[in-house]
Amino acid sequence: MDQFYQVFTVASVFVSWLVIAAVSIRVVIKRQAISVSLAWLMIIYIVPLGGVFAYLLFGELNLGKKRAARGQQMFAPYEQWLSNLYQMRQYVPQLSSYHGQSISAIAEKQLGIPALADNQLTLLKQPNDILSNLINDINNAQISIHLEFYIWHPGGKADDVAQALINKAKNGVSVRLLLDAAGSRTFFKSQWPSRLQKAGVVVVKALEVAPLRMLFRRLDLRLHRKIVVIDNTVAYTGSMNLVDTKFFNRTAGVGEWVDVMVRITGTTVPVLNSIYAWDWEVETNERLLPDLPKCLSHKNDDIIDLVQVIPSGPGMREEVIHRVLLQCIYQAHKSIVITTPYFVPSENLQLALVIAAQRNVAVHIIIPDKNDSLMVEWASRSFFSELLDAGVNIHRFKGGLLHTKSVMIDDNHCLVGTVNLDMRSLWLNFEVTLAVDDLKFTQDLQQLQQSYIANSDSVCPNVWQQRPFIHRVIERIFSLFSPLL
Q1: Quick one: average pLDDT of 332-361?
Q2: Residues 244, 410, 422, 437: which is the catalytic one?
Q3: Does the annotation count 410 as an active-site position?
Q4: At what angle do helices 157-170 and 192-199 cross, to 10 degrees?
């Protein structure tokens, strides 16, 4: 019997070593950022069996065979639809700004999506105004309403949006609602899905979470986009989920969430609708490609408000948002202002910000003073010292959980959308960002960012260096896992 146990022990050790070695080799040969690979190897060796299991579940960008196959079949028709945009009068790359031209070049080569002119953009800054405008546009809908959100949380004015959708569906308007299964789990447990479906609204869970699905798909890939398109003529996108902030996440102790949305009419609306159509088809196999934008007749010098739509996520070219952000930072001459709730940059983004400050670009990063993610909070702090030493200004917003995701370059070009400055947004989730070439809109966003700074405490380099030693240790521990956050 003793001999059996000895053989069993040796065999178990050998099999464990073989599994760890095999998974380690797989980590190394996969084309991932070195920091990501090293973080996974550290987890695998510290917690061998748990680390191996975690890597198999979350270590690779696995969307599932069915979705991946469907996405491959969708490329040709969507590429054809997008190629038609280059023939439109609103495709005027020669009118783009210095910053806009390089960003659009990246988007065109990576995604095949051009920047288009003839848009009217309104920056909505207050939750009540956002929801009121949305309800008004829903009430005026004649043909179709498409909504896509990471979180829908019942309560307050969010319920008024649901009721408006019910009313329009009963009147014959086609209403489709696509919600992330994990982010909107509270909504799916409420009365609203059945009420909406009973009225004729088509409600679909995106990336449904279930124990068996972990064997076939990575469960932490999330649909993080926020898109509304009404009649293919009015669209919304930005950082705000479909929530009334007075009723949402009130027990987290971080205050009300602070967000923006952009209301858009014009040529870009069908492009956003095509992104919605892609996500809808991936989940349902139903094709909803919209009509192309209307080609208005006017002189070139009347063409204004160029907007570049930049989607990202599994099935699309890797790192497109990451590359756009790097390009923005490296071509800045005067100033960079970034707002993000979750600041866990890649090594390349961290270096780009440091270099920008060292070449006398005024760099400002605005983050929440209190964060709803403890791990992100500590990991984020681990980047402060190098940034502060380089001259980067870090502001901690005190008016709630600052959830706005925006980048301002040289006061005349901006990015606004759903993308956080963390590895999850940059590499994993389905996201969308607008690069805007419009001075009035940019000035509105600049004023908003300055109001955030005015309501913030700046991190003093000298005070920061005197923080407790235990804080430094915790920061370093969490920084090791930052490539996976």
Answers
A1: 95
A2: 410
A3: yes
A4: 20
Provide the pairing of β-strand 393-397 with 456-458: antiparallel
Is 226 labeled as catalytic in the residue annotation? yes
pTM here?
Answer: 0.88
Residue 220 is a catalytic residue: no
Q: Measure the CA–CA gap between 36 and 56, rounded to whole angstroms.
A: 14
Confirm if 295 and 90 have CB atoms less than 8 A apart: yes
| 333 a catalytic residue | no
Is 231 among the residues known to form the active site?
yes
Range in 212-226, 320-334, 401-415 the model is least confident about: 212-226
Exactly one of 137, 405, 437, 438 is catalytic; name it: 405
Q: Do 117 and 304 meet the contact criterion of CB atoms below 8 Å apart? A: yes
CA nearest 346: which of 485, 218, 478?
485
Reported as a single tens digit per residue, the pLDDT across 89-143 is 898 888 888 888 999 999 999 999 999 999 999 999 999 999 999 999 999 999 9
pLDDT category at 158 given cuts 50, 70, 90 is very high
**Catalytic: which of 99, 157, 226, 413?**
226
pLDDT of residue 286: 93
Quick one: angle between helices 34-46 and 2-29, nearest 10? Answer: 170
Distance CA 336, CA 125 (A): 21
Catalytic entry in 160, 220, 231, 369: 231
Contact 57, 212 (CB under 8 A): no
Is 160 a residue of the active site? no
